[in-house]
Design goal:
By secondary structure, this protein is an alpha+beta fold. It has two helices and five strands; from the N terminus they run αβββαββ.
């Protein structure tokens, strides 16, 4: 359970704060970041040097169902973009490539824990 001001935020506000945090991380890495209205069909689209990533953000106790995972991987394949799951874990941002569950690393084009 979160403490302080965070316990008064709605699920929408918690999710939006995570989206903004992820947006800022990708912008600092030089990506153009677009936030989708109402998170449909995806939360964020990040582009840099011809590389595209689709980002799904999950905050708090929300989870990714197997049907939603299949849908996201289908979007990823259709767009030719890497699908990334961004979530908060113990107050840290965790980025994971949805296709293989491995951490994302900006240097290697994969995923790693950041900020």
């Amino acid at each position: 359970m979160e403490v302080g001001w965070a316990k008064y935020l709605s699920n929408y506000e918690v999710g939006r704060r995570l989206e903004y945090r992820v947006r800022d991380v990708f912008r600092r890495q030089g990506f153009l970041v677009i936030r989708a209205a109402q998170s449909k069909p995806i939360d964020l689209v990040c582009m840099k040097n011809g590389q595209s990533m689709l980002i799904e953000c999950k905050a708090g106790r929300s989870f990714l169902s197997s049907d939603r995972k299949k849908e996201l991987l289908g979007l990823s394949e259709q767009a030719g973009a890497t699908m990334v799951l961004a979530r908060r874990k113990k107050r840290r941002l965790e980025l994971i490539k949805l296709s293989d569950g491995r951490p994302f690393d900006f240097e290697a084009g994969g995923l790693a824990r950041v900020g």
